[in-house]
Amino acid sequence: MENWILAICNDYCCYEKAQKMTLNYNIYVRHAETTEEALILLANNNYLLILILADTVNYLSRLKLIRDLTLSPILVISRIENPDEKLEALRLGADAYLAGSLELDYVLESSLALIRFYKNLNNKTEFNPVTIMTYHYIFLCVETRKVFVKANEIVLSRMEFDILHVLMTNPGRVFTYEQIHLRVWKEKYADHFYDNLYNHISRLRRKLKIHTDVPDYIITVKEVGYKLYFK
Length: 231
Hints:
Blueprint: E1 3-8, H1 12-22, E2 27-32, H2 35-44, E3 49-53, H3 60-69, E4 74-78, H4 83-92, E5 96-99, H5 104-121, E6 132-135, E7 138-141, E8 146-149, E9 152-154, H6 158-168, E10 175-176, H7 177-185, H8 194-208, E11 218-221, E12 225-228
Parallel strand pairs: 1-2, 1-3, 3-4, 4-5
Antiparallel strand pairs: 6-7, 7-8, 8-9, 10-12, 11-12
């Protein structure tokens, strides 16, 4: 099994140097320029460490989501001293935060120390990839049944989650009342089920609308069904 670190940074030169150093330890570095790209990589791979170069990427708004998706240690590196950001990063799930003018050797040894601790702590734990579905501000994790809007976790009922999951399988497509009911309730649709579906859709809409700048994602197609869409 190969050993990987996920580096989230927008500094390719720094990433390239780190890759050359970690190869001496049989560790590879995978690069993500944004947290959105990192979330996709986290959904399909396991990592020894998540390394975030703080002053090259906007990461705080996604840090809790990254934390919820992985048991791997998270190390945040900043070349600028910022006590408030450090405290916020640790609160959101970072395991360590290093700041200041740091030599790459020091960062590497700090990373290896976290990896050793992580491996000792979880040597009997299996880490399986998870399935992430994204649409605009919405992130949905199929296996853990977690939903986030703008990095805020939204608590949904079983039916609400399943309806959103159906709509997110093909954003923009109109799903009929019959199709949604069959996929979620696993039974043939009848007209008297409409009110129940309507009520679940209404609650789901309210929960997704966490702020005025979040669009109304679920669009009603009159007398047909619903679709996930935003302009």
